[in-house]
Amino acid sequence: MAATILLSKLTHIVVDSIPCCGGFGKHENESTQEAAPQVKMASHIKKFKFSGKASKYEDSKWSSLLLSARKAAKELGYDKETWDSKTWVDIEDYGWNDMSDDQKKAATTLGWDYDSWDCKYENKDWNDLPKTVQEAATFIGFTQEMWDDDSWPDDMDVHWDDLSDKQKNAVHVIGYVKETWG
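RE: above sequence
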């Protein structure tokens, strides 16, 4: 009996002290200091939903790439210098069907597919777009009707350097980079 009580107390101490659990081991009448940071983290994640693989890692420096993304980038001909400086490499002149299977696999690891690499999803109706692409398109001002009619939002008729970082990330999701924009 004493061992059960001790184990129960230790479990509460351990669970209550783990910030990632948000104090789930706490009783209802106890306050949790972890709640505020969790809300902050959720809004941070939501704020950057067009980053990482969704944005083809175009918003990432070489040093912050996941190991799998860095290996994929190397397979496509990038190194730290060309990646960080956004230097055009030979693979960017290839069509999707011109790439080897290993290059396609590497491109897929970085978030690319045939539709984003070759067509920027221009060959897809709105309802056939991946959800992330619909969200990115909506973010930059598309409606379903505009997308299906191949009509761009007026305020997107700007030079790449005039796009905000969030807009750049959103157009990365669709498949555009600085060199293919506009």
